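User: Structure with iron/sulfur cluster, tokens only please.
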Amino acid sequence: MKVKLATSRGFCFGVEDAIELAEAAVATHGPGKVVALGPVIHNKQVVGKLEQAGLNQSGDLETIEPDKVVLIRSHGATPQTMQRAADRGLAIVDATCVLVKRAQDVVMQLHEEGYHVVMIGDPNHPEVKGVIGYAPVTVIDEGSDLEAALPYKERLGIVAQTTHSPEHVAQMIAKILCRPYREVKIVNTLCLEVTRRQEAALALCGEVDVMFVLGGLNSANTREMARLCQEAGTQTYHIETWEQFEPRMIAGKTTAGVTAGASTPEWVIQEFVEKLETM
Ligand code: SF4
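Assistant:
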């Protein structure tokens, strides 16, 4: 099988920073002493390695014992969660990505300026759940009934989940602009790292007859990239590792493209490529 790799793929700087902070915290405080509030990143293989190194994980702040260190993951947390951790006397290591922090700051600023803040994103995604803690925000996604979600407000301030595609955000904004708001302020909170990976994946789609998008099935940016490749008309498989590969996926194909989400480590990509080349 001929295999082509996307020029931009895998770990972004936000994920690299979060992993480094987690490793450094475990090295400083010792195995079993640092507890991540939810998975540090959306990649089971990396989270598994960090757990082996002594990083614990809990989805509930209240269950973390006061002598432990709490690690805030790259997706961030609400200010209420940060305050509760401080009130409980927990030491905090904050691994929130700087671009997620920026989205949190923008939401606060728009609210202070008197805009009704709208976030285009998945209401169930941890980043969105964290950002909307910083101000009253209406979250809308593809299926939202704009009429019901956004009754007439004079001034709208719009941001987006960092991992959405520009194309999807533009479509949502176009729908909003068809409604009679007096003022609409849009602040671009999209992550350029994600956009670059999406562009590279789409460029590769034109050169191959099947695409493999590697990354956590719960990773929003990986799912979005797989959706874009599929929409571009290339047969696409979103899988986590070589374990999920099946020979039928390349039946009748000669050239495969490989890319990976921003939380997929290079060793997962290399292992996949090496094995696919032998097929
Ligand atoms: S994908 Fe972008 S926003 Fe998300 S962690 Fe990476 S750099 Fe930060």
